[in-house]
UniProtKB/TrEMBL annotation:
NCBIfam families from the UniProt entry: PRK05985.1
Name by which UniProt lists this protein: Cytosine/adenosine deaminase-related metal-dependent hydrolase
Gene3D superfamilies: Metal-dependent hydrolases, Urease, subunit C, domain 1
Molecular function (Gene Ontology), one example: hydrolase activity, acting on carbon-nitrogen (but not peptide) bonds, in cyclic amidines
Keywords assigned by UniProt, alphabetized: Hydrolase
Organism: Paraburkholderia bryophila
Domain Amidohydrolase: 47-392
Top-level taxonomic group: Bacteria
Pfam families: Amidohydro_3 (PF07969)
Amino acid sequence: MTTTTHALLITDVRLPDGARVDVSITDGRIAALGPNLPREPGVMLEDGAGALLLPGFVEGHTHLDKTHWGLPWYRNEVGPKLTDRIENERRFRAQGDHDAGVQSLALARAFLQAGTTRLRTHVDIDTDAGLRHLEGVLATRDALREVLEMQIVAFPQSGVLGRPGTGALLGQALDAGADVLGALDPALIDGDPVASLDLTFELAQRHQKPIDIHLHEPGEVGAFTLGLLLDRVAALGMQGRVVVSHAFCLGALPERERDALLARLADLRVALLTTAPASTPVPPLKACLEKGVTLFGGNDGIRDTWTPYGSPDMLERAMLIAMRYDLRRDDELAIAFDCVSTTAARACGFTDYGLYAGARADLVLVDADTLAQAIVARPARKLVVANGRIVARHDTHA
């Protein structure tokens, strides 16, 4: 349940730079932000008591439809290959009663409670299940539309070429309300990167949708696929409308080849998403920053047949990003936070984001001295405001 207010004044909070301010909120927007704002009659008052004020967090890549959040523990005995995980999940979902609507709503609410107010989720579009998983997540988006801004990626978990009819289903998913077109490993899953990418870009052009592609392909294979993708971005004028998720290949290439791809990514405004996994190569954060490449963060799956890991706490994900990239200084930890806040919002296209007058009022209050401490200690969320509404207090739904 949310506390609905048309006007709210949060007093005595601290910005990440240390400034002490009040925040005035009207009709879901930050109306003013500064010291000693006037107390107007009829305005709900909330004492921040010196808490640290952060913008609502952004989850750049998750899979709400797959999660077992809140269910009994899933015993994971899947094989080591990507195809093992895909087929294991397909069997589980076909044989069981996993409900993407119920489960996505449970995890989306957990994200909100922990301070995430913008979210991009990939949803399986499958020739066995059709649009069933999408329909469940669309219902979740509708149920939370007043407080959680959600983008849905129509994602072909088995690729677009191997199962006839997948392309048509993806088109139906985009017509039904998916915001972004997904894709998966054109070389190693689809077996024909040219045909796979041609179909993906043709669908995106026809439906006027951006693309977010899972690219797990390693080393030279991944670099080859990435080059083909960038060729199409340039030829079709899709600059600023493509995200490459994972991009493991960029963490395993010789520096000269890697930097040439980074330069093209920057020039074409193609963003990279990383979950900062500990066990695989990752795109180089500092090189991306130096070259002007947008790199942002997300969880990937959370508690599903693929992985027992993940959490709806984006401060935890920021900490894991910082650990993976060996970010230790306070100013470096701020970069990790940007990966789940400002940079993620920009990469996904979430507008009116941040701590400034006119922005959507998505705010998180925590008891921490600094941003770095908030990331490392991950304190309870003292208050979460989403679209001007109080949605959580002290890690409990309001």
